[in-house]
Amino acid sequence: MNTRVRDVMARTFRVPPESISAESAPADIPGWDSQGHLELIMALEAAFGVEFELREVTQMRSQAEIEAVLRRHAVEV
């Protein structure tokens, strides 16, 4: 599990980093609604210097899926 991804998620959703696991999904994290998802995407793009395509944004529904998309962008996770 990438701690940078977890830290971005924790800051975005204002939850303790240890409360996020690879399987954490929107139903598990308060604030991970449609608006929160957009905020997360923007925070990830800024943190990792990437720009996601719409299809990728819709795939990113857990930390594991976020890391998979980042790997496709050649980001070390």
In a few lines, what is going on in this structure?
55% of the residues lie in helices and 0% in strands. The chain contains 4 helices and no strands. The longest helix is centred in the middle third of the chain and has 15 residues.
Descriptive notes:
There is one protein chain. The chain is mostly helical and 77 residues long. The protein has a single domain, classed as ACP-like (Non-ribosomal Peptide Synthetase Peptidyl Carrier Protein, Chain A), CATH 1.10.1200.10. The chain contains four helices and no strands. Helix 1 packs across helix 2.
Order of helices and strands: HHHH
Largest sheet: none
What name is given to the CATH topology? Non-ribosomal Peptide Synthetase Peptidyl Carrier Protein, Chain A
Mean residue pLDDT: 94
Low-confidence stretches: none
Count of DSSP H/I helices: 4
Structural classification: mainly alpha
- What gross morphology would you assign? globular
Helix content class: 40-55%
Oligomer type: single chain
The CATH homologous superfamily is called: ACP-like
What is the count of distinct domains? 1
Number of strands: 0
